[in-house]
Specification:
Blueprint lengths: L1 H4 L13 H11 L3 E5 L7 H11 L4 E6 L4 H10 L3 E4 L4 H12 L4 E2 L26 H11 L4 H8 L3 H15 L4 H10 L6
Parallel strand pairs: 1-2, 2-3, 3-4
Helix pairs in contact: 2-3, 6-8, 6-9, 7-8
Length: 195
């Protein structure tokens, strides 16, 4: 981010280490552009982007991810991101992305793949497994991946343990996983947790 601060017309006004902190920082600082890491603890960058843009639709978000598959790029763009940069890109590319997005255009990293994102029968974007989860299912999933028990999750979310177990079962079916280890692998593969 120091590179951005050295550019004419650019000033880094803040940073956040978690998805929830990013939402609070966006509310407080109201930046023109947010560089959003998609692998954040407590709330992934996709969900944080959606929440920020629902409150501040004029803010532009550039997704930053280690992944460059068409599914990841499509998810970020459907969440409202105006740009997508892979983490192994050179610093000059991030500067280019910020300039492009601030000029009102979309930016996709040279290494990012944007394959067919539409379902052939309807022409509407196909939902990824994560997009098929409800907000509550995503909340439960993040807590499971962080190692919390059903009882701890129930207390945090003011739910019964049985309800948490129901959410756990539903999200595992929707994601096609059978146990916590597979769920963690899914979360890592989809940039839902930071390593």
């Amino acid at each position: 981010m120091a590179l951005l601060d050295k550019q004419d017309g650019m000033k880094v006004v803040g940073s956040a280490a978690t998805g929830k902190a990013a939402i609070l920082a966006a509310e407080r600082l109201k930046p023109d552009i947010i560089i959003m890491d998609l692998a954040l603890p407590d709330l992934n960058g996709i969900d944080a982007t959606e929440r920020i843009l629902s409150m501040h639709p004029m803010t532009c978000v550039i997704a930053l991810s280690a992944s460059h598959t068409s599914e990841h790029v499509s998810r970020a763009l459907r969440a409202g991101a105006r740009g997508y940069v892979v983490k192994d890109a050179k610093g000059a590319e991030l500067v280019e992305a910020v300039r492009t997005v601030s000029a009102g255009r979309q930016y996709l990293s040279r290494h990012a793949s944007l394959g067919p994102a539409s379902a052939p029968s309807t022409g509407r974007p196909a939902k990824t497994p994560m997009e098929r989860l409800s907000a509550r299912e995503r909340d439960v999933m993040h807590r499971i991946v962080e190692g919390r028990t059903s009882l701890a999750i129930a207390k945090e979310l003011s739910l019964s343990r049985k309800t948490v177990d129901t959410y756990r079962a539903r999200l595992m079916v929707k994601l096609g996983v059978t146990n916590r280890t597979a769920l963690i692998r899914f979360a890592i593969a989809n940039d839902l947790i930071a390593l």
